[in-house]
Design brief:
The chain has about 300 residues and is of the alpha/beta class. The chain is about 30% helix and about 30% strand.
């Protein structure tokens, strides 16, 4: 059976809020078309000035968010939910649906995913991308499949930057909501002793394990299928949670049980309209030691008081 592709078109100014709503609609990845900074991004990524005429002709004022609904799910419910949530946020939008072969949607987003430099040390390389220059960086080979986490989204990128800043060699790392495994695998490549990743989505668990093998760190990582910390044990020097505000606030109620002395707790996936709410939830138990922000998304680093 065919999958359903849902395309949501919104003004660029509303893109961040619309993306956050889209991520709440499906448990796997989305991809986003945004041509507002086309020339600059092409020069930075590909180091070329010649751009395809078709791309140059795209509407620079709109962002298009692609969501895919499996045959077992009801696309009408997803469209209704999206419409209600976008309207509640005052976001003008148009939503278009079409059928899509599974093999097509599994590969559609790949054309938008190129090697990405993150922080000072990492280069994220799509596993199918052969021509690239690591420029002395540590290469994280990645095939995210349908799991969230490619490094292209601000939430993942900010979390990687914060992780690089606070990670120490021989640290043990817990990644809650690990998705593609990008954070846990990245931590190991940057010197962590051991990592544990957990995700509620079975496909994400499978993908994270495959990415660990792709990077030669399978012997240092455990990927658990579970909800937040319900199947986690032990103490960790660095705890990572690139999820959403509500899940972070719930996680923060008992995450101290899993934090070693002087551990750092890094939270990302927090949109600017929710950051004050998250900070208020942390206030009684944690001291926020760092805030990173990009395009309306926040990443927080904290220690137990």
């Amino acid at each position: 059976m065919d999958w359903t592709e849902i395309k949501i078109s919104v003004d660029n100014a509303d893109a961040e809020s619309a993306e956050a709503i889209a991520h709440m609609t499906v448990p796997y990845g989305i991809y986003v078309e945004d041509y507002s900074n086309l020339e600059q991004e092409v020069r930075e990524i590909a180091n070329i000035d010649l751009i395809d005429e078709e791309l140059l002709g795209r509407d620079r004022s709109k962002t298009i968010i692609h969501i895919y609904i499996s045959p077992e799910e009801n696309p009408r419910e997803a469209v209704a939910y999206l419409g209600e949530m976008l309207s509640a946020q005052g976001i003008l939008n148009s939503i278009d649906c079409s059928s899509c072969k599974e093999e097509d949607w599994l590969n559609n987003w790949k054309k938008y995913f190129h090697p990405i430099e993150v922080g000072e040390k990492l280069l994220i390389r799509p596993s199918w991308y052969e021509s690239y220059d690591p420029k002395g960086r540590t290469v994280l080979n990645l095939d995210p499949g349908v799991a969230f986490g490619t490094g292209t989204h601000e939430t993942t990128r900010l979390c990687l930057e914060a992780m690089e800043k606070y990670l120490k060699e021989s640290d043990e790392v817990l990644d809650v909501g690990c998705g593609s495994g990008i954070l846990a695998v990245g931590a190991l490549l940057l010197g962590a002793k051991r990592a544990v990743g957990v995700d509620i989505d079975e496909m994400a668990v499978k993908t994270a394990r495959e990415n660990a093998e792709l990077n030669g760190v399978s012997d240092k990582i455990e990927i658990i299928h579970g909800n937040l910390t319900d199947k986690v044990s032990g103490k960790y020097n660095l705890v990572l949670a690139n999820i959403v505000a509500d899940a972070i606030m719930l996680l923060s109620e008992d995450i101290r049980e899993y934090m070693a002395d002087d551990a750092v707790y890094i939270m990302s996936g927090i949109i600017d309209t929710r950051v004050d709410e998250v900070l208020a939830a942390l206030e009684s138990s944690f001291e926020v030691i760092d805030k990173l922000c990009e395009n309306g998304w926040y990443c927080l680093a904290a220690k137990v008081k």
